């Protein structure tokens, strides 16, 4: 058994500007508000859209793999309004099948429970992570994303790394 080196990533507060390289933050708007530039980033044109409630069990903030979807944007939001964590890296070389993220580019965000995040096509991501035993998330992607567009880079195998997301002052 190989011993992995732990790489700690301090979770940042979520702001529009900080999250922009990875996607967009979607906040509640009044009913009848006009279509926004952020909403226009949604791209489900390469297949059949799938919107579902994803139930996750036991997802503490640590990971050894980071995934991207090259054909679609993905939108995630917590069901029930609890805060959660997400690790991301920029979507460089989206059209290069064997591209990999750089360890130094992986960051993590504290996502408030009352917003959704839209990930750019090709954004590397790991999570959602949360404290507690179980949590559900709204997930918008394509019907076959997890079968044909699920590209994972193994940090453990390729770099000997296990990433751990640290929350300042145990906020999440």
Automatic annotation (TrEMBL):
Name this polypeptide is given: Ureidoglycolate hydrolase
A Pfam entry, by short name: Ureidogly_lyase
Subunit structure, as described in the record: Homodimer.
Keywords assigned by UniProt, alphabetized: Hydrolase, Lyase, Purine metabolism
Biological process per Gene Ontology, one example term: purine nucleobase metabolic process
Source organism phylogeny: Bacteria, Bacillati, Actinomycetota, Actinomycetes, Streptosporangiales
Residue runs in coiled coils: none
Superkingdom field: Bacteria
Signal peptide region: none
UniProt GO molecular function: ureidoglycolate hydrolase activity; ureidoglycolate lyase activity
Keyword Hydrolase carried by entry: yes
């Amino acid at each position: 058994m190989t011993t992995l080196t732990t790489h700690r990533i301090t979770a940042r507060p979520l702001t529009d500007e900080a999250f922009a390289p990875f996607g967009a933050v979607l906040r509640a708007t009044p009913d009848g508000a006009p279509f926004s530039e952020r909403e226009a980033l949604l791209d489900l044109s390469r297949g059949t859209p799938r919107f579902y409630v994803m139930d996750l069990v036991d997802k503490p903030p640590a990971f050894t793999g980071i995934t991207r979807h090259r054909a679609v944007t993905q939108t995630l939001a917590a069901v029930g309004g609890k805060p959660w964590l997400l690790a991301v890296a920029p979507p460089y070389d989206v059209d290069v099948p064997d591209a990999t993220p750089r360890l130094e580019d992986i960051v993590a965000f504290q996502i408030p429970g009352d917003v959704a995040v839209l990930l750019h096509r090709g954004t590397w991501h790991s999570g959602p992570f949360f404290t507690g035993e179980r949590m559900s998330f709204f997930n918008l992607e394509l019907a076959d994303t997890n079968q044909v567009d699920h590209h994972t880079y193994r940090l453990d195998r390729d770099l000997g790394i296990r990433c751990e997301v640290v929350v300042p002052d145990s906020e999440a």
